[in-house]
Specification:
The complex is a heterodimer of chains A (246) and B (368).
Chain A lengths: L1 E12 L2 E12 L3 E6 L5 H8 L7 E6 L2 E2 L5 H6 L2 E4 L11 H8 L6 H14 L1 H5 L10 H14 L4 E5 L7 H16 L3 E6 L2 H7 L2 E6 L2 E7 H6 L1 H8 L2 H8 L2
Parallel strand pairs in A: 3-8, 3-9, 6-7, 7-8
Antiparallel strand pairs in A: 1-2, 1-4, 4-5, 9-10
Helix pairs in contact in A: 3-6, 6-7
Chain B lengths: L1 H7 L2 H4 L2 H25 L1 H26 L8 H14 E2 L4 E2 L2 H20 L7 H21 L20 E2 L2 E2 L4 E3 L2 E3 L1 H24 L2 H11 L1 H6 L4 H27 L9 H14 L4 H30 L6 H19 L8 H8 L8
Helix pairs in contact in B: 3-4, 4-8, 4-11, 4-12, 4-13, 5-6, 5-7, 5-11, 6-11, 9-11, 12-13, 13-14
The chains are: A alpha/beta (246), B mainly alpha (368).
Amino acid sequence: MSLLSLTNVEINYGGIRAVKSISLDVNEGELVTLIGANGAGKTTTLKAITGLLKPASGTITYSGQNVIGTPPHKLAAAGLVLVPEGRGVFPGLTIEENLQMGAYTRNDRAQIKVDIEEKFALFPRLKERAKQTAGTLSGGEQQMLAISRALMARPKLLLLDEPSMGLAPIMVQKIFEVIRDVSKTGVTILLIEQNAALALQVSARAYVMDGGSITLSGESKALLANPKVREAYLGEDVVAASATAT
Amino acid sequence: MTNFAETFLPANIRKHPALFWGGSALIAIALAALPFVLAMQGMAWVRITNLALIFAMLSLGLNIVVGFAGLLDLGYIAFYAIGAYTYALLASPHFGLHLPIWVILPIGALMACIFGVLLGTPTLKLRGDYLAIVTLGFGEIVRIFMNNLSSPINITNGPKGISTIDSIKLFGMDFGNNTSIGSFVLPGLIKYYYFLLFALMVVIVINLRLQNSRIGRAWEAIREDELAARATGIDTTKLKLLAFAMGASFGGIAGGIFSAIQGFIDPTSFGLTESVMILAMVVLGGMGNIWGVIVGAVLLSFVPELLRYTVEPAQKALFGRQIIEAEVLRMLLFGFAMVVMMLFRPAGLISSAVRKRELSQHQAPKEA
């Protein structure tokens, strides 16, 4: 059953049609990726899904309900949680406070504490620095924190906006391992990425976006082998990337 | 009361209850005795202290908007003006109305609150400089309205202001007159001092509770990163409006009390300079830190008065005549103090933990 479904969604952004009639589905428990070059309309699509932008036409359903016009905080409370592009952490708050903020929509205090400990077990680096501010973390650690904070909301659908952006290669590897682990725990994930090689390796299905439209879609494995995709998004790097990725 | 101590006090004081209660008792005695000590120097100092307490209330109100929610408001004085005029119109011969204080103060707070939401709604999407410009304009508009609403229907009495405003009367006691207890005379200004001290304490407690609440944390998150705040499920629209509304209400109450104590108000008390002064109190004291803001308000209320009493004699003693007027020197010193503060203590005299961290972060090492 599809948890998230976009049908013929068109979005205007800054006076131009940034997204032209796209349709995509994310089924419960799946890890789906949306890849594409800069300016393809990926982030705009994500903004529409999370309620930050209102589409010009089309429908977006989440858990079987039309969510167009639903404000972002209500969607977040309903389990549709976004990890924003770049460093989506609160830099002046400590790591612990950041995690607590992630549980803003919850009020089961005891369980929140347990969940924070769980995140610390997952990322010992965060536990070591629990009382330090998020701004003092490295880029990769901030991204781990951003993902952990999103998980604190106990999401049904986790939306990740370019989690690998601006990170050192070793960190990118780690982040993708984390994403795979999170997916294994049963959280549905829609991953938006420019790093097509890695995104296609961790995901089950993928959509390729170009110039505001979805140009290709299907099984990630098939796309990884697709000559068009290899040429446009993987280039020479494909061999090297697959060699370093497990 | 342990609950109170746990919520509001740092750990090192909490561990020594004797120290805490002893210290509190000393502060309480000092605060109670203060007006009598000041009165020995002249009632003018009691009046200055009362104004300092009003400014402390105002700064705490502005601190909610600027310090907690991070919304730069340069027209905050407008809410003070609205509160002051509401009181003046409902308790003076101007309209012949003489409502009791416990009716007027809530109305004043409500009026200011409504205007707070009116200002907040169209500016929700603005931040930083842009918000500052709009709020600055709002402050001026309110002042100009007060200045001109004397015709065709005379509402505010224009630049002439409103005079013979009723003093505060509570439990059969008129705060405007002296009370004689036997041969002991308790002057009205000292009664007002206690009234203000009590009101300020109520405002402080509300602020402390707010800061540690869910709302306080949500404001902090909005200030840090609005998009991330929305992504974590915070209703940023509602919370920003709440900050405007709460800040404005405190301003309205402070304005009402100011009106009653002064007995006379006119639009000149509510100009841009006053807005900037209050903002300076918040920034100097330490944005987001309740105690810092109070220190800032008290300092900036007293220093100009001290200057007024010392600058002229000092110059006459040194140069034989007055070279710089106290008023000019005041502005000069404020500017200088601000520059020095921004260089050496950018987070304020008593800085909030979060602000300090935010500012120090820029120097913190960052690897990719």
